[in-house]
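Blinded run. Sample ID left blank on purpose so nobody reads anything into the name before looking at the predicted structure. Input follows.
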Amino acid sequence: MKKLKVGYLSLVKGSWINESLESKRKHALESLSKLDCELVDCGLLIQSETEAVTVTEKFEAAGVDVILAHFITFSLGTVVPGMAVKLGVPVIFWSEPEPPMLGKRIEANSFCASNMNAHALWKMNVKYSLVYGDHNKALKELEARIKVFACLKYLKNVRIGSAGGRVPGFYTSNFSELAMRAKFGAEVEGITLLELVSNAGKIKPEALKTALAEVKGKACCSDLSKEELEKGAALYASFKELTAKYRLDAWTVRCWPEFADIYGIGVCHILGTLTGSGVPAACEGDVYGALAMLITKEISGRAPFFCDLISCEPEGDTGIFWHCGAAPVELCKENCCPELKKHSIINGGGKMGIASEFPLQKGSVTVLRIGESRDGASYRMLIIKGEAQDTEQLLHGNPLKVRFNRSASELVEKLIGSGFEHHYVMARGDISAQLKFMAAQLDLEVIEL
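Blinded prediction complete.
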């Protein structure tokens, strides 16, 4: 993925120029060099529109994705709005706290500059946000914002493979292809189950050997036959080959009812292995679920967990998130060995593999759902924050108990009353602030629970 290009503007007012401002500019550049982005420096302390014209041309030629307007002092309100409209990119204002006030002339007036420029961009309907703080505080906030903008840039070019479409009766897996492409940029490539399965039968021995090692991983293979494992490896290799063929970033699969009959095994653990390899794979044909998996992967840096919420316990404000065996093994609970087993549901259970079985890790989690509004004219984002608890193998598959940050009864009432889809994507850590910032950039309705 290409790095985000950030155009850095160091802004001052001519009548406030003094010898310290250039050193402040250099200090800022040193701090910003630590960010994971390509920094395009304006090259000077910008005082006038004339100087800004040259910088705008430089940023346009470089193809910057975001403008970082650093108000070292107060600055006139003509530079940033004109540049933002010309380049058609969002703006991050960076203002620093006022230096100690010792009864003399005001030294910076940096925040006031952001306030004034924010009004102009608000009136012009240009996306903007504010980071306020010294270099240490600002750097942390800028890092989070830049990660979101990088994710948005990434989404504009992602391709999701939909193998077989959605499963029967799951209207929650429906999606609007053109609306999703217009809003997020993501494309969908329709792929038949026939091609996926047929290709699995053509895998070369060396590729099969490599795939088998990945499918087994560090799991304890308890009740699977050699044939099931080899079929799983061939299927995984087929997914990988088609990922390259169609230039895919994620998958979603019609994993039942016919998949096991066609191929002889279930696909669950193979989807988990794909997700663990960096190619998120959603169950039951859920394209928006795959999109959410891509988002959480990029922002959290960890493999996501595609799941259902199957139980809520009002007394302890907890709930059980679960799916039938497609969690990536890297999310396995500490000191617990993942098992590859016969699937607990296919054909009544215990008949054929491959499903992974283990409870997931404890710790802070963020649950995400992206879906359409009731009229289909817009999108909404559901965010649930919680703390994953130490969980036992409560049932077959991948269970995890999560304590919510609010009443479980209220959460259930909101989920059901608002008609949310029953599939969720769980990320490790608290990424709620980044998700809300992303929603603001995309004009998504946010429901935070």
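Unblinding after everyone has recorded impressions. The longest helix spans residues 135-155.
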